[in-house]
Amino acid sequence: AAATTTTQQQSGSGATATTAAGGKGEAGSSTKAAKAAGGAAGGLTGADKQKLDKKIKDLEKKVELYKKHDAAQKTEISNLTQKVRDLEKEVRKQTTDMTTMQAELAKTVAAASEGIKAAAKAASMEEELKTLRKANQKLAEDFQAERVLRKKYYNTIEDMKGKIRVYCRVRPMSNSETQRGNHSVVAAPDEYSINISSDRGLKEFQFDQVFMPEIPQEKVYEDTHNLIQSAVDGFNVCIFAYGQTGSGK
Description:
70% of the residues lie in helices and 9% in strands. It has helices spanning 2-22, 26-41, 46-161, 175-179, 217-232, and strands spanning 167-169, 186-190, 193-198, 201-206, 209-211. The strands form two sheets. Strands 2-3-4 form a three-stranded antiparallel sheet, with no helix packed on it. A hairpin with a 2-residue loop joins strand 2 and strand 3 (193-198). The N and C termini lie far apart (163 Å).
């Protein structure tokens, strides 16, 4: 544009100069002006074209750079978006894990509280157990002492009763004796004496204990089980039963 304006100015000056110097008419001036205009409209000079081509190439390079930069930014935005999604997913997972851990922590705290209570109760029970063990040990010692005294006094009493004791157990009459019309000739005026009636008269005998037919076996054992206890305590004991055949020894 600058070149065109200059050309026009130069053409105008040329036209004016030609008119003033040559003294020609308007036809000559018009022809020169048309040539100048045609030269201006006909195209740019080589230097201008090079400048324009360079500018176009620079602009194309910038466009390519912008495109590459835009593509890189899009890729980066896509990567950042994916990272944001991954982070959001991780945050949700961490939140879920934290909720679960909080619930487990609450359970652990409750269990710890119960454990502390149980430990306190166990300590109290341990103290009670120690007390009971001491009491049990004392009872065992007292029992052993009482046992020794009982054996001593018990067997002393048994010795006072006599080292040899004789008991009499009167059997009941058998069926055959009853059928034959026999009758008992034995009578016990007390629990230590027995009377027997015979053709020779009444005979009386003394024993440590008399058990008549109506007395049950339990009563017999009550008076003899003390000897069994003496045998258990380590003393020599002998129970000897004698009598006629079929008397129930």
